[in-house]
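Sorry to interrupt, but I need a hand with the structure work. Could you add the entry underneath, on a fresh line?
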Amino acid sequence: MDNKQVDNFIGIRIKKLRTKAGLTQEGLARKANIPYTTLTKVESGVIKNPSVQVIVKIADALGVTMENLVK
C-alpha cells in the first residue's frame, strides 16, 4: 500500500464495500442520510478524517460495524 492509499484507507474501504453492496455514491449517501458531497470527499480522500457520526451512518447503511469499516 502506498502513502496515498494509507492516507485514504477509510475512503478506499467505503468504496469497496459500497460497490460490493451494489450502491452508487448517491445511493449510499441517501441511505446513510449524509450529503452526497461528503461521501465523495471521503471516498476520494479530500476528507481524510470523517467525523464519527459520518462513519457510523455509512457503516449502518452498508450493514457493517464501525470497527469493520475502519480496520
